[in-house]
Structure to design on (227 residues):
């Protein structure tokens, strides 16, 4: 059974960089069959796809966030990571990591609050 | 900034059939398959339907999906109290180098 677990700071100051890591167990980020993705959900709102990374390192980002997002992968640790720069209060959300293309496995999510 | 449009709410009594619509365009639903997710309060979304009408292992056959043109729908038959949740449709969108787009979400209430 594939499991994903997000980790990282729950509080980030405005203008700083949000950094999260997703640890995968029961499966490999080196698998060529899946996209390893980040998705977020502001409190009380809907889901927003942030982007994905393929095991080869190729990435694809949501155009609305592209200038601020970097997703990377560490195959040796079976992890992938998210960096979102220049955050504002609008970036406050529950951040999920998930396995794509059909997003059949999700992490439990981690709330990141942007506040001074 | 959701690209797929769903009704904000739907409701029914136990045992009834509820249908949720999802409207998109030629670049998403019109050219790619649709997935549906169920999100119970305080939990991560769960894949409910994939490839328009396929159920993952463990999903009851009360849940069914369909697609026609640039729209899709999710049907819940024999509504149960544990079906009270938010439901999201989603699809890959071929515009702008490709991105995954979600629907606006529908809150299903069991009366």
């Amino acid at each position: 059974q594939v499991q994903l677990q997000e980790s990282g700071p729950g509080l980030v100051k405005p203008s700083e960089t949000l950094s999260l890591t997703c640890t995968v167990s029961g499966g490999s980020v080196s698998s060529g069959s899946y996209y390893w993705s980040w998705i977020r959900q502001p409190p009380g709102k809907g889901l927003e796809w942030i982007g994905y990374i393929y095991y080869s390192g190729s990435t694809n980002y949501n155009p609305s966030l592209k200038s601020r997002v970097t997703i990377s992968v560490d195959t040796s640790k079976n992890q992938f990571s998210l960096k979102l720069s220049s955050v504002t209060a609008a970036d406050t959300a529950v951040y999920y990591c998930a396995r794509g293309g059909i997003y059949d496995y999700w992490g439990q999510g981690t709330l990141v609050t942007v506040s001074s | 900034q959701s690209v797929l449009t769903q009704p904000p709410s739907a409701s029914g009594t136990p045992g009834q059939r509820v249908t949720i619509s999802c409207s998109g365009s030629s670049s998403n639903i019109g050219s790619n398959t649709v997935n549906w997710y169920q999100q119970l309060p305080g939990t991560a979304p769960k894949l409910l339907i994939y490839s328009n009408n396929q159920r993952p292992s463990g999903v009851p056959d009360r849940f069914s999906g369909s697609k026609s043109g640039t729209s899709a729908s999710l049907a819940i038959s024999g509504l149960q109290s544990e079906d009270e949740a938010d439901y999201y449709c989603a699809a890959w969108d071929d515009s702008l180098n490709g991105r995954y787009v979600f629907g606006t979400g529908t809150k299903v209430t069991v009366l």
